[in-house]
Amino acid sequence: MKTILGKKVGMTQIFTDEGAVVPVTVIEAGPMTVTQVKTTETDGYNAVQFGFEDAKPQRVNKPMTGHFEKAGVAPKKHLAEFRTEEGEEYQVGQQITVADFEEGVKLDVTGTSKGKGTQGNIKRHGHHRGPMSHGSKHKRLAGALAAGTYPSRVFKGNAGPGRMGRETVTVQNVTLVKVIEEKNLMLVKGAVPGNKGGIVRVQYAVKGQDDK
């Protein structure tokens, strides 16, 4: 299980040796600390819990303070638990860094997309607008939602206005262009979900390693 938590810093561009421009997203990944190892015998399933980014002790409640003290690690802002059958390979207090990732591999990056609030059907679903001529009463409204006499109701799942964004999104098979170990940075080709400062999960791609 090659995975790490990180924070999206922003986007920039780098140049290859051939002079080509490559747009990249900068991710400050890790170091991530193992805070708990769960097994079938003790918890009913196998998993590993990781902590990312140190937190001020006064901002951590008593139950979580006890949890971190039991593990012997500093309080963390973010905790994430990943199911794995390889839990015995991890030890509490062990650190995962960007050094565990190789340049050129394919990655899956999961994050929370930007929230857009309540939006209309045109922006949310890409619907076409109505006539813009004088007197038109159907410029940016939703079109017909149902038939007339039969079935005389709107079916569930029709695309319409509503909340847009702030969803868990995964981009697959993006290339890890460069790793800067001394700064805990990963440069990933292209864009990844979320806004600046958003927390993302980076892991080896499930598919696509053969065509890296």
Low-confidence runs: none
**How much helix is in the residues?**
under 10%
Shape: extended
The mean pLDDT is 91
Secondary-structure element order, N to C: EEEHEHEEEEHEEEE
The first-to-last residue Cα distance is 19 Å
| Total DSSP helices | 3
**Beta-strand percentage range:** 35-45%
Rg for CA atoms = 23 Å
Largest sheet entry: 6 strands, antiparallel, barrel
Order of adjacent strands in the largest pleated sheet? 1-2-11-10-7-12
Please provide the count of β strands.
Answer: 12
The assigned structural class equals mainly beta
InterPro entries: Ribosomal_uL3 (IPR000597), Ribosomal_uL3_bac/org-type (IPR019927), Ribosomal_uL3_CS (IPR019926), Transl_B-barrel_sf (IPR009000)
Keywords: Ribonucleoprotein, Ribosomal protein, RNA-binding, rRNA-binding
Organism: Candidatus Allocopromorpha excrementigallinarum
Family: Belongs to the universal ribosomal protein uL3 family.
